């Protein structure tokens, strides 16, 4: 064997070595989480955990080991071949080894790896809807829409994902094994095939890109948070490890779950293990304060939130409480606490008085908050905007007896005057008490 041949083989080995290393450091780690998602779906459906779900033919625990194996390993050969082709273009002299193979050897390598990849795509098509539904769940405002939306994602989206994944596999086969022409120019037939494939595959590839964008941030956090090994070691004594992965909870709810397991179920956990498992569950099946703010606020305030004035934490809490009057499920207490926590950290440094002096601002907020305990401040604003002081005072006296913490009688005239001043400017009233009245419709339809 001459020295040139030896160096050539070393470059080929290096190309495949780098491809295998990159696969197991990158895609394989993501596939581990997909395998957990697949197991969570199948095991929970087979146990009738969700009585509202249409179980489907795959609700059988016997599918779990097959599905996990397909997700973890069946896509490896084709992905490694494609990565080796990529590295070979830089490391090998001349065309990469996969491009120089005789056609029969290309068929020998491409056909089995393609069949395995089809199995990988099939299992992934049922695993991907799980993180996809987790991301979608937090955006659905109305309770009656939740179950149908989740069921549609679980049962219908695989029929869109599977062709998209297959299209990506066809492209990988073409990329890994295509022959490089001697003059560097593709034949007319090859150009036609490439164009036809692009037209057919592009929509599916775009779909896969959207899924990757939606689920990608969660995967990045999973790498940062860790906790997978602690979850695997501790969460199997009383139930299957995947059982909690069919649940979506707020951070407070997951922490209560862990406290229940520790204090009532007597699960032996060190503090570090509890924190690691909690972080893992939060990354897999929960939402940060920022994500909760985005889903609750940016669905309507996508462009104008940057112009919001800073407010005190108590004022932000009052704003979210008013929202809960109109949508109590979507703005339930633990959700409001997350939104307030985020806004308190990011938009409370210099609370605004909206151009008012401190005393007037404090008086307006005190009277408006009293009104808001039962109804919107602006409920009767039009009626009393041009009323005289006596008529407003009579209304204030009637309302005062309904307050849990009524104003002293000697202060009622001042309260009436403050209310009269508060309702004079509709624009200022809306700035001081946003969401005082329900708003129909938003950027998103659900």
Structure commentary:
The protein has 446 residues and is an all-alpha fold. It has four domains: 3-220, no CATH class; 228-284, Cytochrome c-like domain (Cytochrome Bc1 Complex, Chain D, domain 2, Orthogonal Bundle); 290-346, no CATH class; 358-432, no CATH class. Helix content is 68%, strand content 0%. Helix 11 (251-263) runs antiparallel to helix 12. The longest helix is centred in the middle third of the chain and has 38 residues, at 188-225.
Topology:
Blueprint: H1 3-25, H2 27-46, H3 63-74, H4 76-91, H5 97-100, H6 103-127, H7 129-137, H8 143-177, H9 188-225, H10 228-234, H11 251-263, H12 271-285, H13 289-297, H14 313-326, H15 333-346, H16 358-372, H17 381-384, H18 389-400, H19 412-422, H20 426-432
Q: Describe the biggest sheet?
A: none
| Low-pLDDT runs | none
Integer-rounded radius of gyration: 30 Å
Distance between the termini: 68 Å
| Count of beta strands | 0
Residue-averaged pLDDT: 82
Number of helices: 20
When the domains are counted, the total is: 4
**What class do helices, strands and sheet pairing give?**
mainly alpha
How much helicity do the residues have?
55-70%
Query: H/E series, N to C?
Result: HHHHHHHHHHHHHHHHHHHH
Question: What overall geometry do the principal axes of the alpha carbons give?
Answer: elongated
Strand content bin: under 5%
């Amino acid at each position: 064997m001459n020295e040139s041949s030896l160096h050539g083989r070393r470059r080929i080995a290096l190309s495949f070595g780098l491809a295998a290393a990159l696969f197991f450091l990158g895609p394989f780690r993501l596939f581990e989480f997909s395998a957990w998602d697949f197991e969570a779906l199948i095991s929970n459906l087979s146990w009738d955990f969700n009585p509202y779900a249409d179980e489907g033919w795959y609700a059988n625990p016997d599918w779990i080991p097959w599905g996990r194996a397909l997700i973890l390993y069946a896509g490896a050969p084709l992905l490694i071949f494609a990565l080796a082709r990529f590295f070979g273009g830089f490391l090998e002299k001349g065309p990469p080894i996969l491009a120089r193979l005789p056609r029969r050897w290309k068929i020998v390598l491409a056909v089995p790896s393609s069949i395995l990849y089809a199995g990988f795509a099939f299992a992934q098509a049922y695993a991907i809807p799980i993180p996809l539904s987790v991301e979608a769940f937090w955006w659905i405002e109305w309770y009656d829409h939740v179950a149908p939306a989740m069921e549609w994602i679980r049962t219908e989206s695989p029929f869109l994902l599977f062709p998209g994944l297959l299209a990506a596999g066809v492209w990988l086969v073409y990329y890994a094994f295509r022959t490089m022409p001697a003059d560097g120019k593709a034949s007319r037939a090859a150009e036609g095939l490439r164009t036809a494939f692009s037209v057919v595959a592009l929509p599916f590839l775009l779909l896969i890109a959207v899924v990757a964008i939606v689920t990608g941030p969660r995967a990045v956090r999973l790498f940062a948070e860790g906790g997978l090994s602690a979850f695997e070691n501790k969460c199997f004594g009383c139930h299957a490890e995947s059982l909690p992965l069919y649940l979506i909870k707020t951070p407070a709810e997951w922490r209560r779950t862990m406290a229940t397991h520790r204090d009532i179920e007597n699960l032996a956990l060190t503090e570090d293990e509890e924190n690691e498992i909690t972080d893992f569950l939060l990354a897999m099946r929960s939402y940060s304060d920022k994500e909760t703010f985005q889903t609750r606020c940016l669905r309507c305030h996508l462009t104008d939130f940057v112009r919001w004035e800073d407010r005190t934490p108590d004022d932000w809490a009052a704003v979210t409480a008013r929202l809960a009057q109109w949508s109590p499920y979507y703005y339930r207490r633990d959700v409001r606490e997350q939104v307030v926590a985020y806004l308190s950290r990011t938009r409370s440094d210099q609370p605004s008085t909206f151009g008012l002096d401190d005393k007037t601002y404090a008086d307006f907020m005190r009277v408006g908050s009293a009104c808001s305990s039962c109804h919107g401040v602006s409920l009767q604003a039009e009626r009393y905007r041009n009323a005289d002081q006596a008529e407003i005072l009579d209304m204030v006296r009637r309302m005062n007896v309904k307050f849990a913490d009524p104003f002293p009688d000697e202060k009622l005239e001042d309260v009436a005057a403050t209310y009269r001043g508060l309702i004079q400017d509709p624009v200022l009233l809306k700035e001081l008490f946003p969401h005082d009245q329900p708003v129909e419709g938003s950027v998103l339809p659900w």
